[in-house]
Amino acid sequence: MTFNAFEQFQIIKLIPFSPFGLDLSLTNSSLFMLLALGFFYFLYYTNIKNGFITPTRWQSVIEIIYDVMYGVAKENIGAKAGKYFPFLFSLFVFIVILNVFGIVPYTFSPTAHIAVTFGLSLSIFIGVTLLGMVNYGANYFAMFMPAGSPLILAPFMIVIELVSHMAKAVSLGVRLAANITAGHILFAILSGFVWTMITAGGILAIASIFPLLIVFFITIIEMAVAFIQAYVFSLLTAIYISESEDLH
């Protein structure tokens, strides 16, 4: 059987369901997103809502994340941080859980698919754009023409600023999906290499300890990447919200 590192990203229909020609099937991707929501609900109601005076281990982790994300909201959004903090906190935890799922064998990481991450980033882009329009009306579009720019350059500046603004919707999702996908592919390739050496037997089975150690360290790195990418995604979201709240 030929090894294919991309098989782990295949979308599988678990429960086909297509009413009126609309495909609403339950896939492995949607299943793990539902599991992520369920896991988040479990963590919240067992460790935060019904928190103990002496924090449990999970409660301590959630409280650390709570403090970090509130700091992100406060530093970037300022006085209105409390208004958007619940969204940023939920977004961070949701993405972290999805990222970590992919590290566990025989699971699936939805954030490795650009359709999922782009859907998140596009939703955020539309949301912050509407927020800016609600806050500033037609003046919101003044951001596409930097102050002090020569009138003759207006058409070029507007196009450049518009493209730069719309690129946020793409870059936010592509960054997350690319990093998660690259890490999972590397992990799968090295794991397959280790398994081949072990099944070969003899001196190769003994020598497999070295690539096995590399796989172990890559797993640690993947855990760090799962948190870092979720943090970057949430941080950039906070910055975009700030730009819509405080027009520059």
Describe the fold and architecture.
By secondary structure, this protein is an all-alpha fold. It contains seven helices and two strands; from the N terminus they run ββααααααα. The chain has a two-stranded antiparallel ribbon. Helix 2 crosses helix 3. The mean pLDDT is 80.
Question: What's the short story on this structure?
Answer:
With 248 residues, the chain is mainly α. The chain has helices spanning 28-47, 57-77, 81-101, 114-136, 154-200, 202-207, 209-245, and strands at 13-15, 26-27.
Write the layout of secondary structure elements.
Elements: E1 13-15, E2 26-27, H1 28-47, H2 57-77, H3 81-101, H4 114-136, H5 154-200, H6 202-207, H7 209-245
Antiparallel strand pairs: 1-2
Features:
71% helix, 248 residues, mainly alpha, two-stranded antiparallel ribbon, 7 helices, globular
Q: Major sheet: order of its strands?
A: 1-2
How far the N terminus sits from the C terminus, by CA atoms, comes to 58 Å
Structural class per helix/strand content?
mainly alpha
Q: Uncertain segments of ≥5 residues (pLDDT<50)?
A: none
Order of helices and strands: EEHHHHHHH
> How much is the average pLDDT?
80
SS summary, helix count: 7
Taken as a percent bin, the fraction of beta residues is under 5%
Regarding quaternary structure, how should these chains be classified?
single chain
Shape type: globular
Please give the share of residues in helix. over 70%
Give the C-alpha Rg. Answer: 22 Å
What summary fits the major beta sheet?
A: 2 strands, antiparallel
Q: Based on DSSP secondary structure assignment, what is the total number of beta strands?
A: 2
